Amino acid sequence: MVPPEYYLLLSSGLFCIGLFGILTRRNALYFLMSVELMLNAANINLVAFSLYWGNLTGQTFALFAIALAAAEVAVGIGIILALYRNFGDVDVMAAATMRW
Amino acid sequence: MVTAFDYVPAIVLLPFVSFVVALFVGKNMPKKGAYGGIAATAGSLLLSIWVLLSVRGGGAHQETYWTWAQGVGSQPFRLEFGALIDPLSALMLVIVTLIATLVHVFSLGYMNDEGERDLPRYYAGLGLFTASMLGFVIADNLLMAFMFFELVGLCSFLLIGFHFREPGPPSAAKKAFLVTRFGDYFFLVGVVAVFATFGTAAFAGAESFPALAEGALNGNVDVWTPGGLDTMTWFTVVGLLVLGGVVGKSAQFPLHTWLPDAMEGPTPVSALIHAATMVAAGVYLVARMYGFYVLTPTTMGVIALVGGFTALFAGTMGLVKEELKQVLAYSTISQYGYMMLGLGAGGYVAAVFHLTTHAFFKALLFLGAGSVIIAMHHNENMWDMGGLKDEMPVTYWTFLAGSLALAGIFPFAGFWSKDEILYEALIHGGSEPLLFAGYAMGLLAVPVTAFYTFRMVFLTFHGNARSEIARNPEPVRWNVKGPLSVLGVLAAVTGVINMVPVQKVLGIEGIDYLHLWLDNHWGGIEGLSSHHYAEIGPYSSTYPFGTEVATVLAGAAISLGLALAGLGLAWKLYNVAEPVEHTAKLGGAKELLYNNYYQDEFQVWLANRTRGLSGSADTFDQGVVDGVVNGVSSVSLLSGDRIKRIQTGVVGNYALLLTLSLTALLVVFALIGGWF
Questions:
Q1: What DSSP line would sit under chain A, residue for residue?
Q2: Phi, psi at residue B82, to the nearest 5°?
């Protein structure tokens, strides 16, 4: 059986890649993909711990998170569409009108 | 079962409802809210009578309606609104509601028929005034009493300044408010002191502050005193602090100066202020917490001395006044002086008796004066009157009844009550110099009272008319004559509720109804009876004329003789066809009396002298207190102005902030949790 440390390493690596994407990318679509990566990092943790614990609740929860991610993508793409219509671009830095 | 006591809150709320109605929809109502006020006060009167009868039937009532603040700890403070119905408050409820009802009816004639403007404001003021006073009367603790005391002061401010378009009334209203506030300041400190000392401000019951004070003096109860002060000394201080509010409201020397100026208000308001509400509140407060005052002989002595002095001092100022209402104003101050003398002399029943009779005859005199003022087209100068007795017989005869009562002529109401006060002061004053001084001054004030009262009567109603208006006065209607007649009868016969001298001399038992009433003979609350007060009081009785009967007779004969002497002098000087001023014979004293002993000037001088102190207080307030408040706000504004710049609108920055904050949080938890 693969030891849990490997899963944790994988998930934290995935999480950091997602975080890096969010912090450095300007394209909203990359943003959305990075968020997906972070969510899936969390899913890996849930499934891994569920396996070691011998309890299916974690896996069920991961399924819920996947469904949630699908919904989030739908909303996110809607927002990106609105962004494009209003600013003519999908650059997140362009939409900076809601400020002090 | 529904009893009268369930309706006690309604007694207070009915006039309050009339206040709200008059204020918001009074413009559209017939008579501008007068009928609403009459209905509300009459309803309160009926309920009060029902309450009185229930107390007569052996009932008494104490109930807490609302605890609006409660402390923590083993013995927490409880700040409450509640009602205390015992013989004293039941009697006072009837007096206040009766006078208020009659004043409302009279106002129909004095305000509506005279075409005054802003009537809804007037009736709203009357309603709130009555409601505040009734709330004060039923109060079952000192803090609630203080709140309604302040409301009464506010309402008198509003009503005295009713004619705010003229220069005089607003200034008089301000003066009344400030002078009484000055006394109330001490009262407030006294309330806090009572809470600090006893942890409660309740008037009645085993855990009330008078009962605890009694226990503390007997050594049964431990109370807090500042710096380990002797309990007796501290209670005296507390009593005198609360007395400050009484002196202000009941217009006792040296805080009486607001009252003559308060004559600027409409005459029915003066009647209400002087007879049943504002001024009566002070004396009622002393009677309410009498169980506390009787414990400290010094306070009692001070009350008696202040009362006796005020009775004489204000009486002399009334001697030379030219305006009808001014004479009455000084007579009010003087009569409340008598009540204070009675309370200070241990004559609890006598003082309440005088409060009752005075309420009737003083309301009568003010309403009578109002009737004369209507007739004279608002000219109040008595030297322009004369000969009105044939023109307005109802006013004359009722006014005469009130005057005889005020002067203390047998057998009118004032005679019995004033005589009993003087009798109490006499028999208790044998070994108390303060009390005896009060008695002497009270006795001297008797002929003075009779003189200025009948000077007023003769100048107004007798002799020849001295002006064109006095020859053809404006007639008054039923709404003026009705209240006058009711009060005229009451002023003449109220003495029967307490014929102590008759009982003592003739030996008829059981006709001292007021004594029995206040002694919980029919019903009442333990510890609030006149008997109890006499037991814990500091005085013993001595009879300077040998036996009790002889003392009663001699005391009554002396005061009646003096009153008749004053009346006779007034008769001789002023009951002529063409009276003239005799004030020149007073010499230098004339100017002194005209100027009220320069009391107002003295107070202005005092105010100017203390301007430095108030100036520095103002600087402290504006600089330090306001400075802190303003500083807090400007620091918030400035930091907000700077920190808002992190709100860039760029979503990447927010993500960065979130990440960094989460990291920082994790580091902090790690350090605290000792993970490293």
A1: ---HHHHHHHHHHHHHHHHHHHHH--BHHHHHHHHHHHHHHHHHHHHHHHHHHT-THHHHHHHHHHHHHHHHHHHHHHHHHHHHHHHSS-BTTT---S--
A2: -155, 175
Proportion of chain B above pLDDT 70, given as a percent = 99
- B652: closest CA of chain A, how far (Å): 6
Please judge whether B650 and A23 are an interchain contact, meaning their C-beta atoms are less than 8 angstroms apart.
no
Interface ipTM above 0.90: no
- Is residue A22 within 8 angstroms of chain B, CB to CB? yes
Question: Would you call A26 and B650 a contact, using CB atoms and an 8 Å cutoff?
Answer: no
Which residues does chain B have within 8 Å of residue A23's beta carbon, measured at their own beta carbons? 652, 655-656, 659
Is A99 a domain residue? no
Mean pLDDT of B277-299: 89
Predicted confidence band at B134 (pLDDT cuts at 50, 70, 90)? Answer: very high
Q: Is A93 within 8 Å of B652 when comparing Cβ atoms?
A: yes
DSSP one-letter code for B517: H
Distance of alpha carbon A81 from alpha carbon B244, whole angstroms: 77
- Number of domains within chain A: 1
pLDDT score at B210: 86
In sequence order, the β-bridge partners of residue B599 are none
Tell me if chain B has a CB within 8 Å of the CB of A71.
no
Q: Is the Cβ of A96 closer than 8 Å to some Cβ of chain B?
A: yes
Per the listing, tokens 């004060």 go with B136
Of B644, B649, B659, the CB nearest to A96: B649
Residue B582: pLDDT over 80: no
Chain B residues at the A interface, defined by Cβ less than 8 Å, are 644-645, 647-652, 655-656, 659
Domain assignment of residue A47, yes or no: yes
Q: What's the pLDDT score for residue B61?
A: 83
* Residue B1 pLDDT level (bands cut at 50, 70, 90): low
* Arithmetic mean of pLDDT over chain B: 86
Question: Considering only CA atoms, which of B305, B492, B293 is closest in space to residue B409?
Answer: B492
Give per-residue pLDDT as tens, B59-89: 888 888 888 888 777 667 788 888 888 889 9
The reply to whether A96 falls in a domain is: no
CB contact under 8 A, A93 and B650: yes
Give the mutation candidate from B646, B650, B659, B660 for the A interface (greatest A CB count, under 10 A).
Answer: B650
Confidence of residue A17 (pLDDT cuts 50, 70, 90): very high
pLDDT at B564 over 80: yes
Domain that holds residue A21: 4-91
By Cβ distance, the residue of A22, A99, A100 closest to B655 is A22
Q: What is the pLDDT of residue B119?
A: 85
User: For residue B245, which of B278, B200, B212, B199 has the smallest C-alpha distance?
Assistant: B278
**What is the pLDDT averaged over residues A69-75?**
94
The predicted pLDDT at position B669 comes to 92
pTM over 0.95: no
Which of these, B367, B363, B366, lies nearest to B494 by C-alpha position?
Answer: B363
What number of other Cβ atoms are within 10 A of residue B624's Cβ?
A: 10
A57 in any annotated domain? yes
CA distance B645 to chain A (A): 7
Which CATH number is A46's domain given? 1.10.287.3510
Burial class from Cβ neighbours inside 10 Å (0-12, 13-18, 19+) for residue B152 reads buried
| Mean pLDDT, range B396-404, rounded to an integer | 90
Q: Which of B647, B649, B656 sits opposite A23 (nearest CB)?
A: B656
